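Hi there. Long-time user, first ticket. I'm pasting a complex I've been working with (about 722 residues overall). I'd like to know whether the download I got is complete or cut off, because the file seemed smaller than I expected. Thanks.
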Amino acid sequence: MSHDPWVWIGAFLTIGILSFLYKENPFYRFCEHLFVGVANGYAIAVTWHLILTPRLIMPLQGGNYLVLIPMIIGLFYFCRFIPKLSWLVRIPIAVALGFSSGVSIPAIIQADVIKQIQGTVVYPHLFANWQQGLWAILIFIGVLATIFFFFFSREHKGILKPVSYVGIIFIMVGFGASFGYTVMARLSLLIGRLQFLFGTWLGLIK
Amino acid sequence: MQRTIPLMIVLIIGIAMLIQFFIPHKISKEIYMNFLDWLGIIASFALVLGLGSLINHHIDKIQRKREHWQYSWVTLISILIVAIIGLFGGMEGKGPLPVQPQIMIGNKLIVIKYSIQTIYDNIITPLGGTMFALLAFFMSSAAYRAFRARTFEATLLLIAAFIVMVGVVPIGYYISPKLPHLAQWIMDVPNTASKRGILFGVGLGVAATSLKIMLGIERNWLGGGK
Amino acid sequence: MKFWEYLLKIDRRIVFLLVGLSVLIPLIFPFRIKTNVMPYTQKLFDVIEEIDPEAQGILISADYDPQTMPELHPMFIALLRHAFARKIPVLVMTSYIQGPGLAKQGLDQVTKEFNSQAMTNADSLIYGRDYVFLGFPPLWLAAVLRMGSDISQAFPADYYKNRTASLEMMKKIKNYNDIGIIVSIAGSAIPQSWVVYANTRFGVKVGSGATAVTAPDFYPFLQTGQMSGMIAGLKGASEYEYLVHTKYNLTGPTPATKGMSSQSIAHLTILILVVIGNIGYFATRRTRES
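Hi, the file is complete. Here it is re-exported in full:
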């Protein structure tokens, strides 16, 4: 069993959150609010030491007064609290939005659309052996049918119906795969916490 | 003016970024690099604003005595204590005070560290980790209750999930050495096909929305008011 | 008929208890189980094996927080061990405001492991010479694009407030040209964004350590080669631990491998629960329909 008081605190808080499994209770609510507080207290320290100090304070100390321009734009965020000037909050938002929009359009079209089309039509190992060729054709059909099911707004009847149905089959198998993996993910998190409780704290796990 | 200026900023910066992507000239590159550095500073204030809003919310909750308002004290006091420890002690793991408390348990002297890192390791980590670990229980219960082979499509979903669930863990190999391969095939072929179909939609959607924002067709981000 | 109905109505607390025990008992009494390495884990391992430590470094982006730590932290540790065992210069950053603490914890743990075995100064891992912790950038996208031309400008100071450009390692590693691979360990779609902005734009290789929830979404990128390998979930982490520890004869703790007995039994438990639910459903369907 651990002799470290901090490990005991960690164990106490872990049990507090797990107590929610029985029902919601004051102990759980305390832990929940403590988490929000401590996490944000930590964020304040990170913001000061890792963001404002190296990007603003250190350049100013070094005589780089140009950083005052983005600082003033950044300070416009706080105009939100001054009714007469509240529209100024739109300026830093506009800068960030303009930047992310302009940068993302070509990058996303290239990475998520063009390269993916290439990957579907020109499968890298297409001619390696007959199996690879077959799977490549299957992926091609699957992609087309999925796109068709999701995005073709015309009513799915006549010849369109079987194509859309193939799309559903691929989507169902895809969702099934995702579910199988999700089970793994959630259980892994529980394994981690039980390793802490029964290993680090109680010393029952070697 | 209150709407036109922000809309113009979005348009000009958006187009500048697009041009920079396709024609990376030396001068435009220089401006672009400085702009990237400035963006970091501007974004810092958004983080500060977020923290301010959270504190405001809890003060308001206490003042109006909303449901469970007493717990807001827990949040506010813990923000204050941790922020003091972090701001004065630094990220390096030193505490804000030169001396750290010591206690004797049996014949063992234990130093109680209270640096930002110890608080992170022993409070944030167990609380955050356990909140998500709860999902293991809820997911199992939901799967048992709702996962039914009602139709052919649902049966397909169930079979794929079973193969992946067993195939990806080591025990799958002992049940049948072919199971991991089958699970891998499901991931590589039908899963890839369906995820790619969705990806196209998301990719085109993001590009279209970005374009609408740049051109001022999408204006929800301006919020209310003039 | 009552028995079949009972199968449909097992109390949720009993389900919770069964799942909890199926995880706990194999943790306390584990059994030996063979690790079968999946192809994309092997691929990531091979890419890192091919990096020339004299010419290039590795950037590990610990893009996760305590919520997904049990699944992702073992990957971070295993990747660090791999890079340090090969003497590859390591850069660490995080895009989560809650992330620096975990990255620091992992770096402290692994450097301590290696330094306790070191005999000479050359064998030791020294901060600034062998590894650098860049910290957290306020705007991830701006930092990722800035790093394409100058990493030291994207992070003017490191986690310990040293001027990044003044660190010995950073004189060799200027931008993505000097990075063999970026591995983003994340519980979100961030590895995909690394592909979009770092791989597509700058041509640097990108790999991922993903939670099992997000891993299926990355298969389209693995198939096109935009992503050079992936560690998927705790099982993937155990595969990577196995690969690194076998090849380099390491002895540090392997939490992912230790969790595999539990993972296996718990998966079977959930599968049995779903089967029981379905048996109950089909056995009582006729009664319900009539």
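A couple of notes from our side: Chain C touches chain B through 65 residues (CB under 8 Å). The mean pLDDT of chain C is 93.
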